[in-house]
Amino acid sequence: MHRLIAFVVLLIAFAVPAKDTPRNPNIVLILADDMGYGDARCYNPKSKNPTHNIDRLAREGMRFTDAHAPASFCVPTRYGILTGRYPHRIKLNWRSRALVEKGRTTIPSALREKGYATAMVGKWHLGFNDGPDYDYSKPLVGGPVDRGFDSYFGIPHSLDIVPYYYIRNAKAVRAPTGKIGPRNSEGWTRIQGEFWREGSISPDFKHVEVLPRLTEESVKYIEGRKGAKNPFFLYVALPAPHTPWLPTKKFQKKTNNMYGDFVAMVDDTVGQILGALDQTGMTKNTLVVFTSDNGPVWY
């Protein structure tokens, strides 16, 4: 098994009068994609990646140092996290069907029964009951909103896997009716750098805009929960720093390579989420968990 970047927990809790806090804490679960155990400075002081916000979680919260992924690629961890089951109990053929079984208890479904509002933003990668000739004017069945989440915005799988399109709740925002060619980076192997596969893409989809868009949606959701009477669970499944490595201009040259720059961008996403909690006054009653799926596969 590959080493999993350990859970980092921030719990600044319950130091204010009960009348000012929900009965239960809010929960934000951030799942990075292919981020290594040693990429964050709070785990590796020699890391060349600036991870100030992840380090804040470690400094103000708790680090876990002995955790392991159930497999060496994306899907199994996501199934295991949401269901609490070992992923080897099912056949992980995510390309042809929804992997989380109908009626299966999940973290969001269990929390919803306890009065939580539940939302997901990001990479699902647990399949839908669709196919290569799917009619995208129809709902996508078997996804987040069918498995315990009240709302969802994100992408169906990794940023290097076709088709490329956004999903809002159970519908494609725009159907992947266009075509895009493959991309590779000079000086890197085929599955490194700005790598993605050729295939179908929606007209509004630009790979470099995805992480900023998901960050914006996460912050917007948190801001919208200010003043709510019931607590919330927000699952933020980032598609980064998995390939393609696409740091925006602000983060380029932060380190000495594309991957490190993308890690810095992931850290900034964490910072924006923490900032939204700070600005809405919800930090003191929010549990923040940061982890990764299976470690640094590509680099």
Question: How is this fold's topology laid out?
Answer:
Blueprint: E1 8-11, E2 26-32, H1 52-60, E3 62-63, H2 74-83, H3 107-113, E4 117-123, E5 151-155, E6 167-168, E7 171-172, E8 178-180, E9 199-201, H4 210-224, E10 232-237, H5 258-279, E11 286-292
Parallel strand pairs: 2-10, 2-11, 4-5, 4-10
Antiparallel strand pairs: 1-3, 1-11, 5-6, 6-7, 8-9
Care to describe what's here?
- By secondary structure, the chain is of the alpha/beta class.
- The protein has one domain (8-292): Alkaline Phosphatase, subunit A, CATH 3.40.720.
- It is built from five helices and eleven strands.
- The strands form two sheets. Strands 3-1-11-2-10-4-5-6-7 form a nine-stranded mixed β-sheet, with helices on both faces. A two-stranded antiparallel sheet has the order 8-9.
- Strand 6 (167-168) and strand 7 (171-172) form a beta hairpin.
- Helix 4 runs parallel beside helix 5.
- Category by helix and strand content: alpha/beta
Helix content: 10-25%
Can you say what the CATH homologous superfamily is?
Alkaline Phosphatase, subunit A
Query: In percent, how much strand structure appears in the residues?
Result: 15-25%
